[in-house]
Amino acid sequence: GQDLICIQSMDGMLMLFEQESYAFGRFLPGFLLPGPLAYSSRTDSFITVSSCQQVESYKYQVLAFATDADERQDAEQRKLSSGKKLAVDWVLNIGEQARDICVVSFNQGVSSVFVLGERNFFCLKDNGQIRFMKKLDYSPSCFIPYCSVQEGTINTLIANHSKMLNVYQDVTLKWATQLPCIPVSVKVANFQDLKGVIVTLSDDGHLQCSYLGTDPSIFQAPKVDSREINYEEMNAEMKELQKIIREATKTQDILPESEKQTDVTVTAEVSSNLDEESQAIDSEVKAGAVPSVTVKVLCLTQVTAQKPNLAVCVQAPLAVTCDQFVFDDLEPGSSETVVLSVFLKDNCSPSELEGTCIVSYNIPTELNPEGIPRVSQCNFSLPLKLVCFPAQPSKAANHKLTIDTNKPPVSFVTIFPDFVDPSEGDQANALGFQFLTGSKTTLLASKTSQRYRIQSDQLEDLWLVTKELIHRLEEHFKRQNCKDFACTFSGSIPLQEYFELIDRHFELRLNAEKYQELLSERAVQFRAIERRLLTRFKDKTPAPLQHLDTLLEGTFREVIALADAAEENQANMFQAFAKLKSATHLVIMLISLWQKLSSDQTAILEATLLPLAEDTQELGWEETVDAAVSYLLRTCLSKSSKEQALTLSSQLSMPKDTSRLKKNITLFCDRLAKGGRLSLSTESATQQAAVMPGGCATIPESDLEERTIIPGSTAMFASHGQTTKQKSK
């Protein structure tokens, strides 16, 4: 007639209370962390799962007569105590931690102990023997056994982290249903006339009562009248429906015409001048002052927009002062304006000076009051002076390339007014760009020919200036209503210098793999030493540590040093990938100017050589580009049907070296030079294979290097604009 309460503490102590009075306390042997605890009334014992991943049973009678917890603290009192040592009744090793334990007895005289593990479900007898077990292919969150209608079996509800509730009869899955959340507790309850209601509690406190099955349908289908079928009317109706289907499939738009208009428009306006007071935050650029530019974003809605969120994205190493904005619900005709600043955060030049504004919102409807999700976005371009400033031009440089045009050269005062001193007038035919990262690029205009030269000590630094030059030239002649302006490139593609950047990036990826392996080994060693030390500390008879503490400290220092080295290598790999992307953009532009590729072919080329926005160890740039280039060589750039029959590997894995990639890129450029054209259709690829002249052999890397050496300023355009790598005498 009394209530007995057992409380398990974090240090492994079981405290027993009779009503409100404390009875006694006992420490569980070999305790490390508390596990689930249950009481079996049939055997009068407590069942728990220890840190050794064992199910252990302790009799109440053994607990009552064992050494008291207070007496255990003193060794002398423990020796003089009349209590017995706490002994376990039975033990079962399940090999994993337990989520929960439940003791049930539905039939007369039969009791079962259910244990829910991390990947298995166990049913035990009173003496610890396994009655049955079930291997689970998911991660369970909670469970509850309940009485089965079939004699000799027990039903169990098991919920998992995939928001599923599974019903088992012993080990057989009988039913599975979807839940709206992940439950942390599940019970079966009876409420008045409702029997077998499933009660679940989610981690955020939502209580739900539900039942299995579906609502009964009151609708009864009427009897079908037996009448003769008029085949002529059916054929006419079928033709009319097929006509409607053909008209609908002619337009490729997924959304209806009425939904084509954008409900919420977002525009971004970039300031023409840099901020007077820089807004750069935590910039790692070593330059004295890091400039920033203001971007004003305007969101205008024509409908009711619920939960509007604005995200402003720029590619690293650029950063924004704030990239996420949350607005209140917008009414029709209302607008929201935000102002932010963009600056260079990391100490490397970006590959793109562009950004994107994305607004996500919900539009409520009669059928869906919560709203239908919609997205609007816009792009904006950042000024070149955000990452560089005017400097003195350099005469000598390691890398040079020449862009040919079909129009007379334009004064730099006209196309680069923000970088040229107006006092120089039209005489300025050389312009220097000093990047914030420390490198310099020089732009030269020929006085006698229609050519422009870009030169720098680093290949990747040519990209932004070359792109800006071509863009400003196109805008200049567009304002003059000149429609036949064109740029061409007649030099050799700088593949050898490009391959050096690929090798540098791949070398850092290999280093990252080595650091990861070494860190894994040292971590295993650290945990092994830690386990041994814990065993020594828990031993009742003190024993010497045998320098385990010194070994633990040394291993810890090695782990920290390796982690610092891996972090530094990760930063270097990020900079190497940024340089590789800039050089890849440059190679894509030069190939498109060299072969006069259309916009569709240039898009295919960009998708081939720039498939990734971010580079990871699991999916890297080298293996992705190698697969894309190999596919084009096998399809639209193949020289025979035998090559088209070759199959490519379906798995992407990190290669051992970059020799295959460099060979494929060289062969790719060679076949473009021999008349190949980029296309994704198989028919054009087959026709092209028949038209392409002769066999296409691999270009020797030595032939790709230009042997002509151009002196600094005397013969400025004598080499017809080929990219050179100047050698010091």
Automatic annotation (TrEMBL):
Keywords: Coiled coil. This is PTHB1 protein. The gene is Bbs9. The keyword Cell division does not apply. Residues 597-672 form the PTHB1 C-terminal helix bundle domain. Residues 492-595 form the PTHB1 hairpin domain. Residues 289-380 form the PTHB1 GAE domain. InterPro entries: PHTB1_GAE_dom, PHTB1_N_dom, PTHB1, PTHB1_CtH_dom, PTHB1_hp_dom, PTHB1_pf_dom. Residues 2-216 form the PTHB1 N-terminal domain. PANTHER family: PARATHYROID HORMONE-RESPONSIVE B1 GENE, PROTEIN PTHB1. GO terms for biological process: cilium assembly. Residues 224-251 form a coiled coil. GO terms for cellular component: BBSome; membrane. Residues 383-490 form the PTHB1 platform domain.
